[in-house]
Structure formats: C-alpha cells, structure tokens
Amino acid sequence: MLLVPRLGSGIPLVARTHEMRRLRAAFARAERGEAGAVLLSGDAGVGKTRLLTALGEHVDGCGALVLTGRCIDVREGGLPYLPFAEALAPLGVATDAVVAAAVRARPALGRLLPQGQGFEEPRAAEHPPMTSNDRETMVRPRPEQDLGQLQLFDAVLGVLTEIAESRPVVILLEDLHWADASTRNLLSFLLSRLRAQRLLVVGSYREEDVHRRHPLRGLLSELVRLATVERVDLHPFGAADARKFVEALADEPLPADVVADIVSRSEGNPFFAEELLATKTECNDLPAGLAEVLLSRLERLSPDTRRVVRVISVANEPVMHAALAEVSGLGELELDEALREAVQHHVLVVLSDGSYTFRHALLQEAVYGDLLPGERSRTHAAYAARIQARPQGRGHDAKLAHHSLQSSDLVTALPALLRAMDEAEKLGAPGSALRHVEQALSIWDAVPAAGRPEGYDELRLLHEASYFAGTSGEPERAAAFARSATRALTPDTPVDRAAKTWRRLAEALLALEGTLDEATAAIDRAWDLVKDGEPSGTRAWVLASRAGFLRILDKPEEALDSALTAVADARAAGAAGAEASALVTLGTLADSAGDAAEARERLRQAERKARDAGALNTEIRATYFLALSHDDQGEFAEALAHAARGVARAEEAGLSWSVYGLELRAAQLKLRYLMGDWPDESAGRAGRGVSSAVAARILAIWSMFLVARGRFDEAAKLVAGQRQHWTADMQIPLSLGGAGIELAYWRGEHAEAVRRTEDLIGWLERIEPGLLAGIRVAALGVSAAAALAAAARVRGDSAAADAAVAAGERILAHGRMCSVVGQPRSGTLGPEGRAWLARLEAAASCLPGRGDAAKWAAAAEAFGYGAVYEQAICRWHEAEALLASDADAADALEAAHAVAVRLGAIPLRDAVRDLAHRARVELAGVEPAAPARTVTDPLTDRERDVLERVALGRTNRQVGEELYISEKTVSVHLSRVMAKLGASRRAEAVAIAYDRGLLTAPASEHA
To answer: HTH luxR-type domain spans which residues (predicted)?
Structure first.
C-alpha cells in the first residue's frame, strides 16, 4: 500500500497498488486497440468508488473520455438503463464535433438521453448536474422513439466505437448489484462485442449483495468466461495497511490502542474505519450512521431470518445449530430456511465446525445494539440457562458470567466470574482475569452475603485486581487497587494478610516513577507487622521485597542482611518463591560490587528456583537482571540471548507487560538497535490494553529507529506526542529526548538540536542529577553545537559561531560531570559509558573548527564492542576530519557506508555518499556520478538535487544550505519541478517522481 495525496473530499485515498496496476494495465491495452472489461467486486465500504475515481483521474490525464454511471436502489423494478443513460448523457451536449456527429447519426440513442439532447446543435454552456427528475426523464421510454432493444444496443456500441477511433473511451458503471434487467442485458451485449475498439468498461458491484438467487449472479458467471473480461476482487485492508489508513485519516496523532481498536473492529473496511474514527471516542459505541447502513441490509430478510440473526448477535460468538434451535424457539424447518437465507445474503457465514457467525463483527454490534431491553435480557437468560445445563469446558464460566450479568442474574454471575478469573490466570491471560475480577468487584455489594463464594471477601478481590493490573501492563491501576486494599484493612485483619496487602502496595508503587518514598513507607509498614514474628512465607516475602528496596536506596549492607535473612526464613518455611526473589537481589548486589561471576551464578540459581516454584514474576525478574549483567559489560550477544529468552517466557506465561516483562522487551529492542539487528514495525508496538505510559516505554525506543531510518515525520509525531509521559519512567525521556536531538540534527536544524539538548539536560538534572546517561545526551548536543558553529562561520557570522561554541562547551561540561559523579550499576564505567565519553571528546574537538580524526577513530574503536550503528556514525565523522586535513578517508567512508546500507539508515547513508561525492571517493555499489538523463526525464541535475532533499523532508532553507544556494532559488527550482511533473504540491511532485522512476530510493524511506 502507498498513501497518496488526498481527494477533494479531504479523505486520504489509499491506493491499492496491485488492483490499480491491473486497472491501469487494462486501460493500456484498450489504448492499443484491445478492448476489454473489468468487473470490480468488493464489500460495501471497501473502496470500490475511490479506486474507480482514481482510475478515472488517471485515464482522464491520459486524454481518454471518461463516462460514469451509477445504479440506484429502486425496489419496484428499477429504472431501465439508468447507469448507461447517466454515463452517456454528457454526449448529448458535447461540443466535440466527432462526438456530436456520432450521436446524431444514431437516433436510437434518444431513448437514453434527456428529451431534446443529441438532436439539436450542441450548446456551449456547461452541462448542469443531473437531478433525480432528470434521471427519470432520461430513462422513461418514449413510444415515438421506441425503435427496439437491438437498435438501442447497436446504437450504444456504435457511438462508443466511433468516439474511440479519435480518443480512448472508459465507461465506469457503479453498483451493478442494483442493475435492472435492461441494464444487465445491455451490459452483456456490450461486453460480448468488445474486439479492437479503444474501449474499456469497468463495472463494480457489492459481493455480499449478490447472493445465490440474485439475478446478477448468473450473468457474472457468463461474463467472466469471455476472453476480454477479467475480474478484480477488492479485499479489506490487512492490519498494517489499515493502521496506515487510520493514522492518515486522523487530524492528529491517535493513541496506539485507539488505532488498534479501530483497525480490529473495522476489519480493514475503509468506510467502517472512517465512521468509527469520526466518533472521536475509543469506539465503545457504534456510530448511528454506520449502524443504519449495516442494519439496512437486514430489512429485506424474512421475520424468521431476522429473529435468528438477533439471537446470534446476543451470543457474541459462533453458535451451533442445536443452540440456535433451543434459544430461538423456531422449528427445525423454519430454522433451516432462516439460516439458508442469512447465509445466501452474506449476513452469516458457516465456519468449518458447522457453527454460524456474522460475516462482519460490526454487523453483530449493530444488530445487538438494535435489540429492545427485554428482548436482549430474555435471550441472554436463555443462553445462560443452556450453558448451566451443559458439561463444563474451556470458557464455560466466562460465558456463563457474561450472559448472567446481562440478564441481571448476579447470584449466578459472581461465582462464575471468580472461576473465570482463576481459569484466565492459568491460561496466561492476566488482562482477562483483571476484567473478571473488576466485574466481580462491581457487583459484590449487590449480591447477598449468602450468595457470595466461600473464601472471598472484598480485600481479596482488591488484592487480585492489583496483581492482575500490574501483570497486564496497567501499573497505575495496580497501584490504585492496592491503595484501596490498604484502606479496606481493619483492626481485625490478620497480621499476615495486612502485611501481604502492604507489600502488594509497595510492589505496585515501585513500577511507577516518583513514588519511591510512598513505596518505601509501604514496605516498612509490612516489615513492622512481621519483624517480630516467627519465620513464615509472608515474612520471607516481605524481607525479600525489603532487600530490593534497600538496594535501590543505595544501602547495600542493609540490603544484603535483609536478603540473607529472607533466604533463611524462606528455607525454614518452604517458601521457594521468596527464596528465589532474595537470590535475585543478592545477584544484583554482587554485580554492583564488581563480582559478575558470583552475580550470574546467584541469578541463574534464582531463575531455576523460581521456575520450579511457579513464581513466574520472580523468574522473569531473574532473567532480566541476568541480561542486564551481560549488557553492562558490553556482552551484547549474551545479553540479547537472555533478553529474548525472557521475552519468550513472559509471553508464554501471559506476563509480557508485567514490570519485568516490559523491561525485558525494552532491553531486547534497545540491544537490537545497538547491535544493528533492526526489526520490523511489529517490534515498535505495545500490546492492546496496556496503559499509555507502558506503551510509551516501547515507543520511546522505537523513535530511535524511526530517526535512524529517516522516517522523520513519524518520528517527529512520536517525539512530540509522547512528551507527556516523560515523568512515567526515566528511560522514556532518555530515549525520546535523544531521538528528538538526533532528528533535529539530521534535518539540519542544529539550533533546535542544541535547544533540545539543553532542555533535556535541565529536565534530567531536576529529577536525578548526574545520570551516566547524560554523557550520551551531551555527546549528541555537542555535535549539534559544532555543526551550528560551522554553519555560522560559513555565513561569516562570528557572533553566532561564538554563541554556538559557548553552548557546546556548557553541554560538554555537563557530560564530563556525569562521567565523574554518575554511579555505574557494576561499580565502574562499562564499555558503553566509555564509548560515549570518547564520542563526547571527539565531538568537542569539532567546536573550534576542524575535528580531530584520531579522536573520532578512538571513539569508533570504543564502540567496537558491538554498537555497530554508533560506530558507523563515528567513522563518518572521522572521514570528515580526515578530508579536512587532506588525508585519505576512503576506508572510513566505506566502513560507515556499508553499515548504513545494511541497516537502511538513510540519513547516514546519504550523508556518507554526499561526503564521498564531494571528496571524489567511489563507494562500493554506488555509481560515481548521477546516471545520464534519458529523453523522458524532464529534470535538470540541480532540480533533481532539490527534489531529492525535499523527499527527505528538508525545508527550502535546509535545502539551500546543503546545496549552497538561496532559499528563493530553491523555491524557483521547486516551482519548475512541479510545473514539469504536473504537480500542485511538493509531496505530489515527490510521489510522481518516484512513480516515474526519476528518484531511485523508495518513497517510504523519505516520507
């Protein structure tokens, strides 16, 4: 799929490359005198009209005559020949002599044209838009002109054939599923006589409306047998293209979960997606207009069929025949006929197991929403009764709970919800478990005490809700439920339950930024409750959690003592999960002390014990710190292996978006960025249902890929849209802020890059001064300041150059300070920290002017532990410094170029090629000069240079700076390019250039 410019309606047209290619190919054959026809099928709203509109614009631009007609839904017999009459109507007032003569020569056409048209001298006035009265006048038979059907058919074929001798003719006929018998006959006649005319006929119809008994069905089967006729099926978008469509349609960036919801519910249908988006909500309610369109399809069905459809809508899942027979109350024969009609009219489909379901999920929503309250409640109660009477199986309790809730049978619903919660946890579906326990909490007070399941109270439900919210990627809600649980404690609450409740709050708060003090107070409350007690599982867990908190608070000795005590208590009480948790903390303490071997042994031991004990969260936590131990030492391959294993284990356990499931996923993505193992789009999306802050954790890292790949517009939206989540996790501003600096740098907006650097440094210093990550931020900022100073020197603006150098020196001082006061997790500065410090010093060498090639080479060498992209950046800068001192830079350029090409790092690739071109260095796989233009290429070298940079997202000012021409001259070149290509906007000129092969790189890399 390729997003192309908007139509006049303002709605983005998503050009279906494959289908449009087939239509254009059919027109190309018609241009050569090979007449043909295309039958375009697809569901309502799938984009048939847009595709035909795009085809019409294309062929009109090629000089063809485009004639368009539409059928309308008239139930009493229809209007004879309506689409042909509408299509041919402009011929009656055409000013073209050939057309006018062709029409006058065929009096039989008068039957299709409005009275008086085609038999008078053509008027110069523009043909006015047709009204419904005009259509009736055009197609109403007139006895005085009733020359017979064959004469009319011959006249239509003859006039189209004669006109086609002077210019190609394309006739577009829409909505043939509503065509009357006369229209179908004329269409059959016309298509069966296509030979050597320069004529193309394209007809569209709704596939779901052409049921087995539909009169068009038989005709279609005959037409597709003709050699001149081909069929093109237009299917809904796939998930990726549907996301692009929704994002292009939106006026502003949408949250990922909203986009995913629209994509899922629309099932790739563009019209449905537009309607859902128009509600400006998270799509909980079906838009009224869309519901009316969907329900109109059911009006022609029999009462029994509508009843069966309503019954299935309540099930909200595929339904077997036996269940329908019982719930609907219809007899077997009546039910068979109703189902047959629903299937034939493409309302229902039959699945492989023999069950029935809606062809489109939104139709089910529309039908369900149209039910009367009593009808809905009775049908839910009937389903609930049937489920209760049947043997239990997977999903039994969830279904029973759903139908009992909807029929207000809360006494049945509550225990079913709690059983469904337990089943969801066993299946690794914490999100489903959370929904079940939330529903149980919502009806708890409404269920009499006698109807509540034994062993449950509100405190337990709140604890479960907090746990499931935390493990399904909603840390804010986990903390809210945990706080509610502490408020539900009473003086009579047993000590162990109270301590467990306070520990749950502490663990929940630890996942949030800015709540460490509250979390510490919570774990202290838990410890106060059990510290004087005997060893127990509860006491061991509190001690293990407390040890983790003390490590975070930089109290290693106290943390060690607490962890060792936790191990002893856990072994005495047989609490293997708590022992494993304490071992994780012992491993991290050993890492901080610089003993990586002991740390990894402790962590592997913790991983095994947690797995054996079924302590899934603790197992995943151990795997994360094991990966981090290798990451700290620059052992990327080992770190990535552990991270990938941890992500797989988290997915298997349903804990992908738990605290450490998220950390493992983030670590894996970051490692792949550094190692040059760049993934596809799916890696940059968070799971559905997770909180926006959790999603931001992944999106922040993904923004780095977008910038490095040159997808600047996407990156800019992400950097701006996720700023609100900076306070959620320190890693978010570090990744997003760094991406924002690099984005401005690659765009040539060096002053903006410096501003963003100082903004990020100021923000970090207010939150946590002296972070080691500040070295990387400073290195990026100093490079921007050096580029800004260099540009000012070229302009002869010494004041601006001095100001840029001063900014660079301030940023440099901050980076050096971070390298001194920052506290490495392993006790000493690791390979990554040392590499960024080397890059910082290399960038600083560029502030006075020419950079130090030796320092850039040293920085590149420092990144040799596995950070291939960062190493390539350093090689590029090394080449700049070498060339500035008249030294050989070929090896550095070749090394940077090879990495950039392999990764698809377009900005770096182009920067290296530009430098090589200016230095007369030939790179492997790159032509030494631009290919010679052919006679079909209208652009000059300079115009192409300008357009290439516009395609990269550069402004006119930036293009001018890169090409050393004025902004006004850039504008002049662009105006000439647009005139030559027939474009009205910059983006359209770029798209046309790619389409014609005038630009060689894929458009998606520059958009």
So the answer is: 932-997
**Together in a domain, 200 and 261:** no
Pull the structure tokens for residue 972: 């002049």
Q: Does a structural domain hold residue 767?
A: yes
DSSP string, 212-269: TT-HHHHHHHHHTTSTTEEEEEEPPPPHHHHHHHHHHHSSS---HHHHHHHHHHHTT-
User: Do 151 and 216 fall into the same domain?
Assistant: yes
- CATH assignment of the domain containing 969: 1.10.10.10
Same domain, 231 and 245: no
Closest CA to 42 of 209, 200, 172: 209
What's the DSSP call for residue 122?
Answer: P
pLDDT value at residue 9: 35
984-999: per-residue pLDDT in tens? 678 777 877 776 677 7
Q: Which domain holds residue 279?
A: 240-285
Distance CA 92, CA 107 (A): 11
* Residue showing tokens 């377009």: 906
Alpha helix stretches (DSSP H) within 829-903: 831-844, 853-862, 868-884, 890-903
How many angstroms separate the CA atoms of 404 and 618, rounded?
Answer: 37
Model confidence at 580, in pLDDT bands (50, 70, 90)? Answer: very high
Q: What is the CATH number of the domain that holds 56?
A: 3.40.50.300
pLDDT at 1001 over 90: no
Separation between Cα atoms, residue 680 and residue 699, nearest integer Å: 13
Between CA 484 and CA 492, with CA 488 as vertex, the angle to 5 degrees is 155
- Domain count for the chain: 4
* DSSP bridge partners of 65: 169
Taking only Cα atoms into account, the Rg of the chain, rounded to an integer number of angstroms, comes to 35
- Cβ contact 978:989 at 8 Å: yes
Distance CA 753, CA 818 (A): 20
Structural domain includes residue 610: no
Q: How confident is the model at residue 940 (pLDDT cuts 50, 70, 90)?
A: confident
Structure tokens at 709: 């790949």
Based on the fold, state whether residues 852 and 797 are members of the same structural domain: yes
Q: Are 26 and 42 in contact (CB under 8 A)?
A: no
Position 355, amino acid:
S
Q: What CA–CA distance (Å, rounded) separates 153 from 187?
A: 9
Check if the beta carbon of residue 341 is closer than 8 Å to that of residue 374. Answer: no
- Asked which of 887, 918, 949 is the last residue of a domain, the reply is 918
> What is the C-alpha to C-alpha distance for residues 457 and 459, in angstroms, rounded to an integer?
6
- 795: CB partners within 8 A, 6+ apart: none
98's CB contacts (< 8 A; 6+ apart) are: 162, 163, 166
DSSP 55-111: HHHHHHHTT-EEEEEE----SSS--TTHHHHHHHGGGGG---HHHHHHHHT-GGGGG
